[in-house]
Amino acid sequence: MSVKIRCQGCQKVYRTAEGEFTAIGDATLQIEEGQFVCIVGPSGCGKSTLLKIIAGLDYFTAGEFDVRHGESRDQPINNVVFQEYAIFPWRTVLENVAFGLEMRGISKKIRTEIAREWLQKVGLSKFANYFPDQISGGMKQRVAIIRALANDPEILLMDEPLGALDAQSRLLIQEELLKLWDETKKTVLYVTHSLDEAIFLGDEVLLMSANPGRIIKRYPITIERPRSINTMNTGDFTRTRSEIWEKLAVEVGRSMANQQ
Amino acid sequence: MNPEKSIKLSVQIPLFLLLNLVLYFLDLWTNQALMCLVIDVIIFGKIVNDAMKLVPVRYKKSSERFVTLLFPILLLSIWEIFASTGKINPTWFPEPTKILASLWELITVPEKFSETTLLGRPWMILERYQEQGLEGVWKLIEEGHVWATLYRVVMGFVIGLVPAVFCGFLMGMNKTIRLMFDSILSAIYVLPKIAIFPIVMLVFADPFGDAPRIAVVALSVFFMMTIHTMGAVQNIEGIYILAGHNYGAHGLKLFFKVILPGSLPSIFSGMRVALGMALIVIIAVEFLRAEKGVGYLIYYNWEILAPEKMYAGLITVMLIGILTTLVLKLLQYLALPWKRHSLFK
């Protein structure tokens, strides 16, 4: 298994009129191909910033960072599923899912076919010609997820995609996500503030400290796949959860103290 | 049906009528007409409100429509009565029926100096249609005041809009351009374009022709729409731009697929306001210096003290405003398919 994403001592410092602000203190991580890695940390720790930089939408101010590209020339290196609903309100559900393919110049016939396939996988075929403000939050995020998957990137980057959803939709979509990931086995980097979610989804959980964010510990998750909602009730799960929570709680406390 | 409420109503209505009779006999309607009117309106409003609650669900929609029509008609009737009995000065507030009559006159009787009516020479429409078909009829309408004003406002609007949207996009997307022009734009925006009308007249070869008038409308629309478009671009949610970039939309692609559709709804709402402003500007300009047009007509009828005709002119301006707004709404419907289902809420 080769290393897909590598960060060594990466930093992000903003220089403003009021002085310097360190968003990311030290991001050191290695993600292997095909791994599902979750980053968990308190709010304000810089995990979203980290994700954006890895996506190429921003840059580190220090440290070594590289992403290993695959052999394919057309396959996009990464696609992001954002925190808020970032699907375009002026496009139909189908057009949204086909967006990445359209930007790559793929013909209308083929991209429509691909988009329809993905819509079917998440049960949204009926809503192909609906506009985003006609569908529910859970449906919107499914569209956001398959928009990324339909584009077939090498790496899938997800920034708290289920944060705005109600607890029930979250559980259901988490399961769906694992099923979809299982089919394609992409490299995934998933940012969340929910420890349960991180353990449930990931092969590995990286703990990020309060601001300035540093990756302080790596927890390999040995719980077997395929996982279901019942996995959250097993002994293994609860043991892992308490282990990580010990350290996470400290960071959450520090983060709250920072805000005062 | 709520028995309590209907009893309340059956007491309120006779009391209301009684009250009015009392006021009449106490001569209060003659001396304190305004006060009586206000009291009446308040009580009437309450009665209608209570009555509406008693309406069975089946008739809710139609009763609501009835009330929307009822009130203006009531108001017009009161106006009619007050004006004809002299309670309000009929010179400043002529009876609505007289206004309608003069509207008809404005359409059928040519005005002295411009030698035309609101719609050209409509009595010749049938004749013309037989001789030259629809084209001939159109030529007749072109002679009229309505067309003169409509032409100027639409031309000015379009000539101002197109460059405005273009500049607005440039300024919204590029910080340097924005920094360069923002202050100049804001400074000229607050200048009333009527004030620069005389200067604009100097610029054109024919100062008394249509060109300066259209130019002033275009200028008003331009400055407003540039600022508005620039704001629309800047107010696009940053996340759409990030998503656009991440999924491969850059440069022109990003513009046509993300920035343009993202700012279009806001641009359309700005257009509605700009249209209203364009109408104001053209009427004002026609007051000042025109030989034809609805504004000219209103002003002329002020000069010869024919207030009913002035009001009729106002109604015509309202109708022009409604017509142009409808066209804009239609364009909006066509251009924004994702907003269609919410248009009729």
In CATH terms, what is the fold-level topology of chain A?
Rossmann fold
Helix/strand order of chain B: HHHHHHHHHHHHHH
Biggest beta sheet attributes of chain A: 9 strands, mixed
Uncertain stretches of 5 or more adjacent residues of chain B: none
Strand order of the main beta sheet of chain A, please?
Answer: 4-1-2-9-8-3-7-6-5
Order of helices and strands of chain A: EEEHEEHHHHEHEHEEH
Q: Name the shape of chain B in a single word.
A: globular
Structural class of chain B: mainly alpha
Low-confidence stretches of chain A: none
Summarize the structure.
The complex is a heterodimer of chains A (260) and B (345). Chain A has helices at residues 47-55, 93-97, 99-103, 108-121, 137-150, 167-184, 195-201, 235-259; strands at residues 3-16, 19-32, 36-40, 62-67, 78-81, 155-159, 187-192, 204-208, 213-220. Chain A has one domain: Rossmann fold, CATH 3.40.50.
Name a few traits of the molecule.
heterodimer; A: 260 residues; alpha/beta; nine-stranded mixed β-sheet; 8 helices; 9 strands; B: 345 residues; MetI-like fold
Describe this structure in words.
- The complex is a heterodimer of chains A (260) and B (345).
- Chain A is an alpha/beta fold and 260 residues long.
- Helices cover 37% and strands 26% of the residues of chain A.
- Chain A has one domain: 3-Layer(aba) Sandwich (Rossmann fold), CATH 3.40.50.
- Chain A has helices at residues 47-55, 93-97, 99-103, 108-121, 137-150, 167-184, 195-201, 235-259; strands at residues 3-16, 19-32, 36-40, 62-67, 78-81, 155-159, 187-192, 204-208, 213-220.
- Chain A has a nine-stranded mixed β-sheet with strand order 4-1-2-9-8-3-7-6-5, with helices on both faces.
- In chain A, helix 4 (108-121) crosses helix 5 and helix 7 (195-201) crosses helix 8.
- Chain A starts with a strand and ends with a helix.
- Chain B has two domains: 3-84; 140-342, Orthogonal Bundle (MetI-like fold).
- Chain B is globular.
- Chain A binds chain B through residues 52, 55-57, 76, 78-80, 82, 84, 86-92, 99-100, 102-104, 131-134, 147, 151, and chain B through 237, 239-240, 242-243, 245-249, 253, 257-258, 261-262, 264, 336-338, 341-342.
